[in-house]
Design a protein that fits this description.
Strand content: 35-45%
Bound molecules: beta-D-galactopyranose
Strand order of the largest sheet: 23-24-25-26-27-28-29-30
Number of strands: 46
Shape: globular
Number of helices: 9
Distance between the termini: 28 Å
Largest sheet: 8 strands, parallel, barrel
Helix content: 10-25%
CATH class of the largest domain: Alpha Beta
CATH architecture of the largest domain: Alpha-Beta Barrel
Number of domains: 5
CATH superfamily of the largest domain: Glycosidases
CATH topology of the largest domain: TIM Barrel
Structural class: mainly beta
Length: 832
């Protein structure tokens, strides 16, 4: 949504501010005028469970062959059951996409632990729409950004696609099957198989990313067909060696050229070039190439993520027939065996986190704006890098990473060199190779074959396929074994030889040996840490919660408390950095437990994005430009008077003096990695830390014993939403005492009521043992915090009000202004 908004805004700027664009006879005033990219998210029909395809299901469907013929379902246009045109889906539930039905299921101890104890299964989706007669002759493409897990797609009763990845997008040219005019309805039916699973984490189920219908000229830019990644030459000059894949679905060979213009943030065309014409045979494609020199662009970096827009326009003679806008950034990247990672020639240690893609309340159907929220939280922690473990991310995540300045290690799901999986790898690179944020392609994660010749060969083939499409970014593989042979030297047959950057998962005790064994290769810790803690818990109950002191980790994680893991990386100056496991907690893999824990206890942020102790520890380790000082735990220990309480100061200061009710407990030197801890006999009141650098006070932080909860408090992450039916905002729910202080030990039920132009689309509280529904008008505050996600209504404007009540507490209300925005162009819903 934000991407489209920005494109729309660019279009406005381009036409308003740049008369030169109008003056060019061959230049379009707006890229959107030449193709229509219509959202297909609205108005699907959903049926949980399978529907047999061995009949017309009660006589419905379209029988093209008469009642006596037995080959129904075997011929084009004649699919049976729910795949058929005309199948009666009126009783099915109406849903808008993105949609994850698995997150709506109750937890079930018998369901798969790694998938978060939620039943999966099979479901059907259907959508009907019309195409005006004036669309005849255009190329009509259906686009699915992500369906979990496998699916079969039917268009107008013809089986058109099998998707073998829950993470890869796919497109279907439905032009030959399209039906035009007011009397004809087009039907898309999708059978989703989420019984199948690809990962060992929660994957959700359903059409959980966006869908689109694109109408464009028969000669057009293929989907993901613009490659416009700027490079800096040895002479220090920037050039965009643009490659544009042109497709032709017309009946004869066509000739076309491309104009590639570069626009700055103010909408000024700062550079541009036109290619020579190329020939494109019918049903074929051809790459048009043109180099676009760009003088003195503002660089993209994590602090200043300057973006430009490349507008690629297809010209047939002087006539513009198609156009696409692509966001780009000018930056150089280099992985060096001695210096680690360099961005714009400056060394930059990757302070990264690995993340899956689910969020509280919504599962994997994450609203676009939540990606911004999540990346902002990680940046607040001092992180500059994000690993998309273990699969291609939503493209909106990469758009957010480009905008916010977050470096990305982009990972494919399958370690596989067979045609189907190389197709998925090609798709990933083609889709993502323009993003300045993407710095590394990851080809695998902890594959059994990585230790031997097969792994080396698979990686060799995959690496070569990546290089065909992008030579500007290196490849890596997240390898947890096999880099070293029994003699401690480089194992001659292992996947590390086939990638550019040696990736190490865990094995911190082997860092020196691996470093020595691969003297000429850059190295990165592709995964480390795996510490476990439960947000807001400071006493371990070995049946379900782990105390949040950064001192518990599973056996495979070697030295991997968050502090130990980073110390080991920081002490390897040649390492490019690391990606901790994990930034955000996720459903599934409830290590170190099983039921009742249903989501992970990893995570510097919990499922909602509330900080755990690891967040503050990493902030202290990673933030360099300001003092950081946070104390854990809270100071509500009624009943434990005089008992020692372990206190940890997460800090980057030199020393910390700790005061209890104004009296010095002790001043200690803070280790830059291990920081500082005390045992403090508890007494109610105020525990205050004073951090000093070079003997001078630079930071202060206090925790106080609060009173009992008296009132609720609601704090939205933003106070405004676009009324487009997509924009969403998390609202924090807390209980506060009589003095307005949040009560960190509050655990209480809250009732929610929403009025105005929007809805509550999900709730959560970050408790891995919480089995309450994530949809609905109730949430329980867990250790002081809960979250409600509000989303605007399509066409909405006005005040969206969330009201929260709890027994015996003063209620709270918050208001979010929903502003009217132009509707996202979309495909109208029609009944069949
Ligand atoms: C790693 C693996 C991750 C996750 C993690 C848990 O070995 O790559 O996907 O399972 O362990 O510690």
């Amino acid at each position: 949504m934000i991407r489209l908004f920005i494109l729309g805004f660019m279009t406005l700027c381009l036409s308003a501010l740049n008369p030169a664009v109008h003056a060019q006879p061959d230049g379009p005033a707006s890229s959107t005028a030449l193709r229509q990219t219509l959202s297909l998210d609205e108005g699907w029909r959903f049926h949980p469970g399978d529907i047999p395809r061995d009949s017309f299901a009660g006589g419905q469907g379209v029988n093209l062959y008469g009642p006596d013929i037995t080959y129904h379902g075997a011929k084009a246009g004649s699919a049976w059951g729910a795949a058929a045109r005309g199948y009666d889906d009126k009783s099915w539930k109406r849903v808008d996409l993105p949609h994850d039905w698995v997150v709506e299921q109750p937890f079930d101890e018998k369901a798969l632990k790694q998938q978060g104890y939620r039943p999966r299964g099979i479901a059907w989706y259907r959508r009907t729409f019309k195409l005006p007669a004036s669309d005849r002759g255009k190329n009509i493409e259906l686009q699915f950004d992500g369906v979990a897990t496998h699916c079969t797609v039917y268009v107008n009763g013809t089986e058109v696609h099998h998707n073998w990845s829950g993470y890869a997008s796919f497109q279907i040219d439905m032009t030959p099957l399209a039906r035009y005019g007011d009397d004809a309805v087009n039907t898309i039916a999708v059978r989703v198989d989420a019984e199948d699973a690809e990962g060992w984490w929660y994957e959700g189920g359903g059409i959980y990313r966006h869908t689109w219908l694109v109408k464009r000229s028969p000669v057009h830019i293929a989907t993901d067909g613009v490659y416009a990644n700027p490079v800096k030459g040895a002479d220090g000059r920037w050039v965009i060696p643009a490659e544009v894949t042109l497709a032709n679905i017309g009946s004869g060979t066509a000739s076309a050229a491309v104009d590639v213009g570069v626009f700055d943030a103010a909408g000024r065309r700062i550079a541009g070039s036109r290619s020579a014409p190329v020939r494109i045979v019918s049903q074929g494609d051809t790459v048009a190439k043109v180099a676009v020199p760009v003088a003195a662009p503002r660089l993209w970096s994590v602090e200043s993520p300057n973006l430009y827009t490349v507008r690629t326009t297809v010209l047939r003679g002087d006539r513009a027939v198609d156009s696409v806008d692509t966001s780009i950034g000018f930056r150089t990247i280099r992985f060096d065996a001695q210096k680690g990672f360099l961005l714009n020639d400056q060394p930059l240690k990757l302070q990264g986190t690995s993340n899956h893609q689910d969020h509280a309340g919504v599962g994997v159907a994450v609203p676009d704006s939540l990606w911004d929220f999540r990346l902002r939280k990680l940046k607040e922690m001092g992180s500059n890098a994000y690993r998309t473990a273990h699969n291609p991310p939503a493209k909106e995540l990469l758009d957010a990473a480009d905008r916010l300045g977050m470096l990305v290690m982009d990972e494919t799901r399958h370690f596989n060199a067979s045609p189907e999986y190389l197709k998925q790898l090609r798709w990933l690179v083609r889709r993502d190779r323009n993003h300045p944020s993407v710095i590394l392609w990851s080809l695998f994660n902890e594959e059994g074959l990585e230790v031997n010749e097969e792994g080396m060969e698979i990686a060799r083939v995959m690496n070569a396929v990546v290089k065909q499409l992008d030579t500007t970014r290196p490849t890596t593989g997240a390898q947890n074994m096999g880099q070293l042979g029994a003699d401690g030297k480089a194992n001659p047959k292992n996947a590390a030889h086939s990638v550019d950057v040696v990736g190490i998962n865990y094995q911190a005790d082997e860092y020196d040996k691996i470093r020595a064994a691969y003297p000429d290769k850059p190295i990165v810790s592709t995964e480390d840490t795996s510490q476990v803690m439960t947000r807001g818990e400071y006493t371990t109950d070995w049946s379900k919660v782990v105390a949040s002191y950064d001192d518990v980790y599973p056996g495979w994680a070697t030295t991997s408390t968050a502090r130990g893991a980073w110390e080991a990386i920081a002490k390897q100056p040649s390492f490019a950095g690391g990606f901790s496991w994990t930034g955000f907690a996720y459903r599934g893999e409830p290590t170190p437990y099983g039921w009742p824990s249903a989501s992970s206890h990893f995570g510097a942020l919990d499922l909602c994005g509330f900080p755990t102790t690891e967040f503050y520890v990493r902030q202290a380790l990673w933030v360099k430009d300001r003092p950081v000082l946070t104390l854990v735990p809270h100071w509500n220990w009624a009943g434990q008077e005089g008992q020692p309480i372990k206190v940890l100061a997460a800090t980057n200061t030199d020393t910390v003096a700790l005061y209890l009710n104004g009296k010095l407990v002790e001043e200690k030197k803070a280790d830059p990695f291990r920081m500082v801890e005390w045992q403090v006999p508890w007494a109610p009141g105020r525990l205050e830390a004073v951090g000093k650098k070079d003997g001078r006070e630079v930071a202060r932080f206090a925790v106080e014993t609060t009173g009992a909860p008296m009132a609720l408090r609601l704090t939205p992450d933003r106070n405004a939403l676009a009324g487009d039916g997509r924009d969403a905002v998390p609202v924090t729910v807390e209980a506060i005492d009589a003095q307005g202080r949040p009560v960190p030990t509050a655990n209480l039920a809250v009732a929610l009521d929403v009025s105005g132009p929007g809805a509550n689309i999900g709730v959560g509280n970050g408790d891995p043992n919480n089995h309450a529904p994530e949809k609905g008008d109730k949430v329980t505050i867990y250790n002081g915090l809960a979250q409600v996600i509000l989303q605007s209504r399509r066409g909405g404007a006005g005040s969206l009000v969330l009201r929260a009540t709890a027994a015996g507490l003063k209620p709270s209300e918050t208001m979010i202004g929903v502003r009217a925005v132009p509707a996202l162009p979309s495909v109208p819903v029609v009944a069949q």
